[in-house]
Fold each of these.
Amino acid sequence: MTSGQQAGGDSGAADGAGAAGSESLSPEQIEERLRAQRVALAASVDELAARVDPRTQAREAGEHLREQASARADHLREQAAAGAGRLREEARRLAEQAEQTWERAKQGDSEATSALTKAAAVAGGVVTTGIILARLARR
């Protein structure tokens, strides 16, 4: 029982110290503390209200999606630029190869002449197919 009395006594001593601390403050100081606590509490309530406001959440989600879309678009633009560079390089290579084949065919290389003949046949087929499809599309 003595330990219970001591625990109760300690609790009473802490309460008494708190009350004594309050008594040592002037009424103006107490009012100033209360005013500061009200301001802090109001700020906390406003912050909480802003966090749970559906419009705020929707706006933040929209901003997040815009940021993600912008980052993805930047990434895709970079990939497209790299791909376009590779395609330009491949086109240059093929143009050089075609020019070399043309020169060899002019010099009488039968293999080059055969390659040019095949390429001309394919190109003619592509043009003919394009004309036929265009006419069919008009109907």
Note: The chain is about 95% helix and 0% strand.
Amino acid sequence: MAGESPAQLSGPLTGLAPGIRVAGYLLEQLVGVGGMAAVYRARDERLGRVVALKLLAGDESVRSRFVREARAVAAVDHPHIIPVYAAGEADGVQYIAMRFVAGDTLQGVLRTAGTLTPRRAASFISPVASALDAAHAAGLVHRDVKPGNILVDSRRGGPEHAYLTDFGIARAMLSMGTLTVAGQFLGTPDYAAPEQINGQPVDGRADQYALACVAYEMLTGTVPFPRDSAWSVLYAHLNEPPPLVTRIRPELPRALHDVLAIALAKSPDYRYPTCGDFADALRLALGLDHYDPARFPSQPGTAAVPLPPQGTAPVRLPTPTLVEPKPESATPDPTRPWTAVITADRAYYDSVQVAGDSDAGDIDFPEDYAERRIPLTGTEIRIGCRSASKGIEPEIDLKGPPRDLGVSRLHAKLVPTPDGAWTVVDLDSVNGIQVNGRDVTPGDPVRLAPGDHIHLGSWTKITLTQA
């Protein structure tokens, strides 16, 4: 079982070494170590088999959690989850014995290969997704899905076999790149879902987000948000869309954009229902068959896109087309004033479709719309349609004439940042907004640069500029 490079043992584990016996297991070789935990290749002397023996020393709360999660994982019977043989305590040290995997981690595979072919990437994502769904059905959330926790059994005579390991068992101690903030965040920054970072309750959709980060890394050779510090990575997960995979590997199909955008949505409500749904959508976008055809017995189908939450039917709906972002965004200059330039965008108007025939006659493009320029003053700027009776007075009033019927009373807002830039937030509007052609999740701020375009309603375009 390959893992992190062995390091020096410390604390209660310092007395452990090859040749020592723990609970009937003869330690043979140290293969992974952290501050309070170690993983050994060991021999079960009762059955004569090699096992991976994970040893942990900690306080009562750590020991209780270790045993609880070991039992939970042992209850999940899945061909791509490391089987647990035994767990308990001996001489003040907690232990868990599991199958020993002769091979490497996916992290090691990526370190050697750089990027993977689409077929090989899918061959890892699909079984891990299946394993995660099985764990979720048993009430387990992994919360630390990453290449280092995916073991690759590459014995000769058979295909690579992926195993998901470390379901929270001593993960904070064994993962050298793991951040822990009491009561808020436990995981690895490069693969952490926004709700996990914010300390909110998490479910299987947080694991899906992490798995999508792993897929992104396998296909591009880089994590979605490579940054200089862990906190910069966390900020990006919360606020920034991931770069398109085709900007790194142009030969990849553009259909991947929609699939990854859904799985990496800032809000879990906009992700796929299960990890398996994400994995199958990814396979279809890559031109591959379903991983488990039994799930789709009637017809091949296409990648399923989750619908937005139930609510008032919008007047017009954007079509699922993708617009490449500008190759380069201008860097905001905090000394220069910002202006919101409001125009009518014919191309955007032509790209959306009528939600119902009854709406078609009410939506006309204003051919002679006069450009409006609104200075941004350094305070929140609300965007919507004024209503004196309801007491709604947005700073950018799009009531007209002419009025864009797709704009809500309070549609969005522009929020200044401490460094002199601006973000835009969709205020859970009926029709939503797009920034540079990408849909924005309601409530999630999107950082803007000079020249960025916000589309809303049926034809309204707001361009941010600096004089």
Note: The chain has a mean pLDDT of 80.
Amino acid sequence: MTTQRERRGRVAVLFAAGLAVVALAVGRLRRAVARADSVPLSPLFARWRVGADYLDRHGVATGDSLPGEMDDVATYESPEFEPDALDPAVRRFYERTAEYDLGYSVRWHPGFRLGATLAARATSRLEQLNLPAPGGIGGTLRSRIVAVEERSDPRDGARAWIRTDDDGVAVIVAVYASHVSGDRRYVNIAVPLPASNLSTVLLPRTCEDGGVELTTRAGTDDEGLYLVTPLGGVALPLAQRFRVRPDGDGVRAVHEMWAFGRQFLTVEYAAESTESRRSGG
């Protein structure tokens, strides 16, 4: 029979273990907040719906259309990335992005499909991160890139890449920019959400096939995914990677995402220049 002293001992052990778990969680949260505080992140949030008219409704667009996700790929030169090693088709895609339509297909990985099905109901109404639920077939995205006012988003070269489906419904609205830390320039992307945004900081790396990898898994200081709210930002236990390679006059890309080290999403893209399609190339 368990004595009162033994019961008290077990309670003390459980209490100490609980304190240790709480201390570990608080410590990790503090580190996650400190990481976010060290990175220049976008202040742009949404209300409820995002949609293709997000910039106009929030009054943050300059009215100027821009050709590409980047003005000049060469500005991202770093120990990991050599711009001159890029295939011309890949470089053109990044500097003339708005001239491409993107065919895409989505695969949700086992263990995440139920969550993705439930989330798809919300994202379709939100018109943001509006990817098909498991079993969906993807489609074609039309691109438009618009400059964002510096007073609304002070990150370097902020611009919104608005991707819509054939009906003009927003699939992804993301505000692209960059920042420099040490001898590296990072791609710095914000996806507006209700009263928050999901920000991603990616490091470009050269690939042997003339392509490029943009990743949060390179082991440098700033890269990662962050949730930004009016109370501040916090680093998330998420990772993602884009691999873009030449494919004739266009490019093909694979976008992968992980949560707590488990891969949950793969999106494949095929980008074709609208000019090339019109000419029959």
Note: The chain has one domain: 38-278.
